């Protein structure tokens, strides 16, 4: 509008611009625009021309277009959703770690990027406490990690992160986008309905900002493999022995077999942890006597094959101290875990009486 006014009212425009150049302020003059110019301007209008060109330059600046551009993805405005398997079966007590990964590649095109670009990769979700790169889902113990290309089209980098990108005159490539399902605690089961998402934003002074969200399709069904215990209470009557059967400390006698009964899904790595019910902190291979025992100087040992079993905490988590592997992967159906128990002399003063020990067992299905 300013330029069209100056074009139609040339004399008035000259007068006003002369006033700008002379005083630094725009003033309305009650006098007509044919006012006499100062003597130093009579021989030419170079200063008036300079003022007019300055006016035009300032008027055109707000409409200047950014030179560069980024297409991500090329010929589109949205990224294709990542997708996990529609159904997955996991062992109930499997340890922390990744069990599924899904990857897409999106075309990216950059033209005329003559400034430093900033790539910001964030995750929309709730991080697992103590792990800023794993984000919760609606299933207990199951999280998601995201990865995106390093640089313009490099290898996978764990999100979230921010980095600067070098200027490029022309680039066409593939941008990696990845998500992983991660177990970070005791795993639950159900249908994945609430999942985190990743955002990738390119920004800079020489191109319009481009921001895209990477989503994961919901609906994956997580089912757990496990076992049921068919012998929740195991009573082991032991044969009586003589004091002379345990002549020195460390002597053993009276070995008695017993077993734990289970019914298991197929494909489970089976583990068991025995806990001393009379002394929960016991990590030795000798089971403490219960308070209703009357014998002294003696204890009990449980054996897996010929190896004494050490006691541990009451926990099904993978890696629990003194957790015992009791076979390979289950074939499915009923099975037994064979064990033995025996007397062991623990003290120099050996006294006769009843010997009673109590232990609990915790199964872990990995």
From TrEMBL:
PANTHER family assigned: FIMBRIAL SUBUNIT ELFA-RELATED, TYPE 1 FIMBRIN D-MANNOSE SPECIFIC ADHESIN
Keyword Transcription: no
InterPro entries documented for this protein: Adhesion_dom_fimbrial, Adhesion_dom_fimbrial_sf, Adhesion_dom_sf, Bact_Fimbrial_Adh_Pro
A single Gene Ontology CC term: pilus
Name of a matching Pfam family: Fimbrial
Protein name: Fimbrial-type adhesion domain-containing protein
Species in which this protein is naturally found: Pararobbsia alpina
GO biological process entries: cell adhesion involved in single-species biofilm formation
Major location category of this protein: other
Keywords tagged on the record: Fimbrium
Coiled coil region boundaries: none
Cellular compartment(s): Fimbrium
SUPFAM superfamilies the record matches: Bacterial adhesins
């Amino acid at each position: 509008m300013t330029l069209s006014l100056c074009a139609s009212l040339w004399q008035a425009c000259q007068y006003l611009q002369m006033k700008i150049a002379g005083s630094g302020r725009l003033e309305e003059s009650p006098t007509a625009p044919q006012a006499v110019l100062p003597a130093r301007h009579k021989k030419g209008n170079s200063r008036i021309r300079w003022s007019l060109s300055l006016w035009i330059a300032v008027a055109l600046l707000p409409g200047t277009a950014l030179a560069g551009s980024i297409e991500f993805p090329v010929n589109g405005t949205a990224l294709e959703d990542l997708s996990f398997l529609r159904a997955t079966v996991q062992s109930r007590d499997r340890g922390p770690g990744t069990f599924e990964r899904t990857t897409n590649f999106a075309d990216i095109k950059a033209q005329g990027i003559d400034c430093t670009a900033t790539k910001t990769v964030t995750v929309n979700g709730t991080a697992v406490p103590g792990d800023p790169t794993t984000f919760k889902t609606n299933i207990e113990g199951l999280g998601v990690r995201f990865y995106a290309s390093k640089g313009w089209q490099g290898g996978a980098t764990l999100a979230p992160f921010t980095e600067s990108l070098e200027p490029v005159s022309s680039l066409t490539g593939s941008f990696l986008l990845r998500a992983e399902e991660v177990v970070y605690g005791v795993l639950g089961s159900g249908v994945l309905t609430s999942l985190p998402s990743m955002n990738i934003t390119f920004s800079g002074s020489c191109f319009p900002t481009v921001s895209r969200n990477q989503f994961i399709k919901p609906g994956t069904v997580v089912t757990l493999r496990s076992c049921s215990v068919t012998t929740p209470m195991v009573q082991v009557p032991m044969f009586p022995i003589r004091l002379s059967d345990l002549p020195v400390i460390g002597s053993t006698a009276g070995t008695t077999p017993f077993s734990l009964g289970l019914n298991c899904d197929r494909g489970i790595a089976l583990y068991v942890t025995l806990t001393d019910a009379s002394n929960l902190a016991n990590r030795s291979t000798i089971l403490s006597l219960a308070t209703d025992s009357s014998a002294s100087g003696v204890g009990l040992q449980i054996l897996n094959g010929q190896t004494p079993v050490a006691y541990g905490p009451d926990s099904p988590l993978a890696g629990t101290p003194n957790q015992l592997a009791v076979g390979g992967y289950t074939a499915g159906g009923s099975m037994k875990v064979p064990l033995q128990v025996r007397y062991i002399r623990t003290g120099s003063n050996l006294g006769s009486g009843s010997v009673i020990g109590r232990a609990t067992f915790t199964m872990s299905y990995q």
